[in-house]
Amino acid sequence: MRFDIITIFPDFFTGIFGHGVMKRAMAHGLIEAHTHDLRGFTHDRHRTVDDRPFGGGEGMVLKPEPMMDAVESLGIAAKAERDPSRETVVLLSAQGSRFTQPVARELSRLERVVLLCGRYEGVDERVNELACDRELSIGDYVLSGGELGAAVIIDAVMRLIPGVLGNQDSSAYESFGDGDEQFPAPGGGSGEVPRSTHGSGGLLDYPHYTRPPEFRGLAVPEVLAGGDHAAIRKWRRERALEKTLRNRPDLLEKAALSKEDKAFLDKLR
Ligand code: SAM
Q1: Does residue 138's CB lie within 6 angstroms of at least one atom of ligand 1?
Q2: Would the annotation count 266 as a binding residue?
C-alpha cells in the first residue's frame, strides 16, 4: 500500500517513518510512504503557498494552485474517474467526518491513500471539491496542521494491513476491533486461551500485565498466573466490560454482548 502526503513540512514525517512497526513495514515493502513538499509546486520567488481569505477575517488560507498541482503530479486518477476501491484522496480537516477504526479498516483495503495537510485557516475549498473524496478529522479539537492527523491515519491504517503486525490477530482483538473470529485463535486451539471470547467484539481491550509479579505494592491479579484458561477468559471479559462502561459507555450500545455480559453490567450499574 502506498501513502502520499502533501505538506509544507515534509521533514515532520522523518521520525514517524523511522521507528517501530512503521519502519519495519516499510523495510519489508508492505507499505510505502512519500512526502511531497507543497512549496515545490509554487512558481514565485518566495515559494508562496498561502494568501488572504476572501471576505476578510483572521489568518491565511492555502492557495489552490500548488495543492492541485501537487495532487496532479502524483499520477492519481482525476476525481470523477477514480476507483474508490483502489485509491482515495483525503483532506485533513477539523470539519471532516470522524476518523475511526472502521474507517481505518476501510482505508487499509485500498492500494493508495493521498493525504492533504492543511495549515493556517485551512485549504481553499475548491481543492476539496476538485480533488478530495473525503474530509477526515482525527477528533473534536483544532490542530495547527494536518500533519499530525496524517501521521495518525497512516499509523492506524498500516497496522491493519496483513503481514504488518507479527501476529495477525493482534489487531482484530484490540480495542475497537471487530473480533469476528476471522483468524484462528493463537495456538490453533491447542489449549491456549482463545482471545475471541474475551477481547473486543466492540469493547475496549482488557488490562495487560507483565513481569514483575509485584510492583510497588501492586500484585498482578492472581487469576492470570493460575493457568485456568476459563477463569482468565472470564476475568478479562469482565475487566473489558468494566473499562468500557467506565471510559466509553457509548460503545456498549453497539458491542456484541452475551447474556452473561449484560448480567455483569447490570450488577455494575
Ligand atoms: N479554521 C479551521 C477550523 O476552524 O476548522 C482550522 C484550521 S487548522 C488551524 C489548520 C489545519 O490543521 C487544517 O486545515 C487541517 O488540515 C488540520 N487540522 C486541524 N484540526 C484537525 C483535526 N481535528 N483533524 C484533522 N486535521 C486537523
Answers
A1: yes
A2: no
Pairing of strands 218-219, 32-37: unpaired
Find out whether the beta carbon of 149 lies less than 6 Å from any atom of ligand 1: yes
b/e for 6-25, b at 16 or more Cβ within 10 A? Answer: bbbbbebbeebbeeeebeeb
CATH code: domain 2-158 is: 3.40.1280.10
For the segment 77-123, what is each residue's pLDDT rounded down to a tens digit? Answer: 999 999 999 999 999 999 999 999 999 999 999 999 999 999 999 99
Rounded to a whole number of angstroms, the CA Rg of the chain reads 22
Q: Give yes or no for residue 168 having a pLDDT over 80.
A: no
Looking at residue 197, what is its pLDDT?
46
Beta partners for 50?
62
> Which atom of ligand 1 lies at the shortest distance from residue 136's CA?
25
- Do 104 and 147 meet the contact criterion of CB atoms below 8 Å apart? no
Q: How far, in Å, is the centroid of ligand 1 from the Cα of 174? A: 28
- Ligand 1 centre and the CA of 62: distance in Å? 12
Give the right CATH number for 176-268 from 1.10.1270.20, 2.40.170.20, 1.10.3210.10, 1.20.1740.10. Answer: 1.10.1270.20
Distance 59 CA to ligand 1 centre (A): 13
Per-residue pLDDT, 174: 84
pTM over cut 0.85:
yes
The ranges assigned to domains in the chain are 2-158, 176-268
Does the CB atom of residue 221 touch ligand 1 within 6 A? Answer: no
Please identify which residue in the block is written with the cell numbers 486461551.
Answer: 193
Atom of ligand 1 nearest to the CA of 91: 16
Average pLDDT over every residue of 138-165: 97
- At residue 188 the predicted structure's pLDDT band, cuts being 50, 70 and 90, is very low
